[in-house]
TrEMBL record:
InterPro entries: YbaK/aa-tRNA-synt-asso_dom_sf, YbaK/aa-tRNA-synth-assoc-dom. Residues 59-172 form the YbaK/aminoacyl-tRNA synthetase-associated domain. The lineage of its organism: Bacteria, Bacillati, Actinomycetota, Actinomycetes, Kitasatosporales. This is YbaK/aminoacyl-tRNA synthetase-associated domain-containing protein. GO terms for molecular function: aminoacyl-tRNA deacylase activity.
Length: 185
């Protein structure tokens, strides 16, 4: 099921809304080189007060649970070293941080990264972190269900606005690995 774009007042190509995006997201869209044309990435202006999934569902409808994806930042630790990674899973699932993610990162322990570190190192706002424009050295782990969706509603780097992006484009982002079993119910 594609994202019902008519649920939003206005849907525009993200490349025409760079001033509404966080700096790293705008830079990534400016230098877009994926097989999906940049014009297929869309921006919808939403109220920052409803940036969280539960509030978006209340405002726009339950279809969001199946068509939106959450990007969470994880810290994997091993021998005094910490690796930050991002996980992209559909909103009605959660990332298997202590199993699939920990093993993939080769970490002894994995947990959600502290908010201040995730925000500081991504250059994005909490509640709007998105896989587009993440630091180049971060692994991006993508659940196959996200990669297979025609379009996913994701963050825009800030609490204001969302991006609507083909799943294929998300799977092709720099540092992306489609990881079986990442999203669990």
């Amino acid at each position: 099921m594609p994202v019902p774009m008519d649920a939003f007042d206005e849907v525009r190509p993200a490349v025409r809304c760079l001033d509404l995006l966080s700096d790293p997201v705008a830079a990534a869209i400016r230098s877009w080189s994926g097989s999906v044309p940049v014009e297929e990435l869309r921006f919808v202006d939403t109220d920052p007060a409803v940036a969280d999934t539960a509030l978006l569902v209340d405002r726009y409808g339950s279809w969001l649970l199946e068509q939106s994806a959450n990007c969470v930042v994880v810290a994997g630790k091993r021998g005094g070293e910490t690796t930050l990674a991002a996980c992209l899973v559909l909103s009605h699932t959660r990332a298997d941080v202590n199993g699939v993610v920990r093993r993939h990162l080769g970490a002894r322990k994995a947990s959600f990264a502290p908010m201040d570190r995730a925000v500081g190192e991504s250059g994005m706002e909490y509640g709007g972190i998105t896989p587009i424009g993440l630091p180049a050295d971060w692994p991006l782990l993508v659940d196959p269900a996200v990669a297979d969706t025609p379009y996913a509603l994701i963050g825009s780097g800030s609490r204001r606005g969302k991006l609507i992006v083909p799943g294929k484009a998300l799977a092709e982002l720099p540092g992306a690995t489609v990881l079986e079993g990442l999203g669990v119910a």
